[in-house]
Design goal:
With about 260 residues, this protein is an alpha/beta fold. It has a single domain, classed as Rossmann fold. Helix content is about 45%, strand content about 15%. A 7-stranded parallel beta sheet has the order 3-2-1-4-5-6-7, with helices on both faces. Helix 4 packs parallel to helix 5 and helix 5 runs parallel beside helix 7. The longest helix has 26 residues. It starts with a helix and ends in a 5-residue tail after the last strand. The mean pLDDT is about 95. Bound molecules: NADP nicotinamide-adenine-dinucleotide phosphate. The site of NADP nicotinamide-adenine-dinucleotide phosphate has 28 residues, from helix 2 and helix 8. NADP nicotinamide-adenine-dinucleotide phosphate (NAP) binds next to helix 2 and helix 8.
Length: about 260
């Protein structure tokens, strides 16, 4: 029998996998989030592009339009400073515009300083935890009424190997990713008996982005996986072929 992991790793998304779906992607202006937003749109989704740099979101918007994807929406937002009021306003805007959400990819994150705990600045700790874990908590809480309007909604969090086992100098980032996995498990358990909301996480593994280059400045980027090559795995978890999958932690690039 094929395991969920095998299905995930070998998945090839049909062209119209996400037809008519409304999917929110955080950190959609750059890196993995940008490629995921483009890929979701290419597979038929109307994508809500959320990020803090408007010019980057506009470029992704233009790329989606030139690829002939459904017209996306742009939602500029700095997750560092946003509070409950902003998430409620976001809910109201999306409710008015779409009336539901069929998926959220929680992808935006801050790396923060790579330094020993002894030197880790409290202000940096707060910022990293705010963007990486408090913001997804506030956002998912506010968006649940919209996800509840979907016939089949996927909530996908982004993990990291340092969130599974802590490692020296990864500080608040590693702690935030461990907390993210836990938030995923709590929600998955709370929606276990729901037939229309599933919650999982994906650890992309080493992927060629700005964050990776900042974390590993001496690494040759040419040796690191291109985000496009892991997109079928994101598509699997966002599309209805993973409808029965809930509460799982996936590794997009498992160690051999
Ligand atoms: N790349 C890897 O090797 C790797 C490995 C394991 C896990 N991950 C995880 O994968 C996800 C994507 O990482 P990536 O490598 O693609 O990172 P990235 O290239 O740094 O992109 C991160 C995105 O998040 C946005 N963002 C950051 N802070 C924000 C804020 N305060 N408000 C709104 N948006 C904000 C950024 O916006 P701006 O462009 O405007 O800065 C950017 O679009 C993250 O959750 C990361 O932890 C990555």
């Amino acid at each position: 029998m094929t395991s969920i992991t095998d299905t995930f790793l070998h998945y090839q998304a049909p062209e119209k996998l996400l037809q008519d779906k409304i999917i929110l992607v955080t950190g959609a202006g750059d890196g993995i989030g940008k490629v995921a937003a483009l890929s979701f749109a290419q597979h038929g989704a109307t994508v809500v592009l959320l990020g803090r740099t408007l010019s980057k979101l506009e470029r992704v918007y233009d790329e989606i339009e030139s690829l002939g994807g459904p017209q996306p929406a742009i939602f500029p937002m700095n997750l560092e400073g946003a509070g409950e009021h902003e998430y409620q306003a976001m809910h109201d805007t999306l409710n008015e515009e779409f009336g539901r959400l069929d998926g959220i990819l929680f992808n935006a994150a801050q790396l923060g300083p790579r330094t020993p705990i002894a030197n880790y600045a409290f202000s940096e700790w707060q910022k990293v935890l705010q963007v990486n874990v408090t913001s997804p908590f506030l956002m998912v809480k506010s968006m649940l009424p919209l996800l509840n309007q979907s016939q089949s909604a996927s909530i996908l969090f982004t993990g990291s190997s340092v969130g599974r086992t802590g490692r020296a100098y990864w500080g608040g980032y590693a702690v935030s990713k461990a907390a993210t996995e836990n938030l995923m498990q709590i929600l998955a358990d709370e929606y276990e008996s729901s037939s229309h909301i599933r919650v999982n996480s994906i650890n992309p593994g080493a992927v060629r982005t700005k964050m990776r280059a900042t974390a590993y400045p001496a690494e040759n980027p040419g040796t690191v996986t291109d985000p496009h090559s892991i997109m079928n795995r994101y598509l699997y978890l966002m599309g209805d072929d993973s409808r029965a999958v809930n509460g799982q932690q996936f590794d997009a690039q498992p160690k051999a």
